[in-house]
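Ticket #4471: structure export looks truncated?
Reporter: QA, pipeline team
Priority: medium

Steps to reproduce: submit the single chain below to the structure queue and open the exported record.
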Amino acid sequence: MSLFASALSFMRGSAATIAELAAPKQCLMCGTSLAERTHRISTACNACMAALPPPPSPDEIFVRLAKNFARDELAVSRCFSLTVYDETLPFSRMIRSLKYEQIASIGLEFGRETGETMRHLGIMEAEAIVPVPIHHARRRERTYNQSELIGRGIAEKTGVPFLMHALMRRRYTTTQTRLNAEQRHSNLSGAFTAGRDSNLVHDKVVLLTDDVLTTGSTINACATALLSAGARRVDVAVIAAAN
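Actual output as written to the record:
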């Protein structure tokens, strides 16, 4: 990496840190002050964390995903979610802050919550953790990859090896937000491929990490690439699954 690129990377990382330091010391879900007592995470009060709605079961998520794909097209074996995503619920503010307001600690902390929950439930079967990659142009915009932070948090709590470079996004894609399921599939066609560490997923059960699961187009495209690289099975963990 050149001296200029290193300096630029440092400046971007510093900007994200400054954004977090400057953020109000209030719960991002209800606005309650976080200064009065100790809380499980730095961006939400204990009451809001305790009130997070339970997610659908892995079986329910799988059935929902299967409806969006043709027979034998779904490359994911199982999916775990920490909670439910609904734009009308307070937790949606967490996702917006993570993705668009540079509050990176949300990704790491909710990754830890997800990993701890999976470990407690005894459902962690993965031998490697791989994040959904973002294009380098989008990484410049956001300064970090939220899926990577979530994956690192899960790895921290479970001890499963984290592989940042097993998968790569080889082309920039438009945002998926306003696309229907068919358009999302088309938008992501050929977008992901094996990365420089893809040999490390060979014959392994891989846990793919992301922030929110909606139609499953992104995770399925990633899972397909991982299976092509030799992964034995691909499971998924997200912090929220859409209703």
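Status: closed, not a bug. The export was complete when the record was re-opened. Leaving a note from the reviewer for reference: The radius of gyration is 18 Å.
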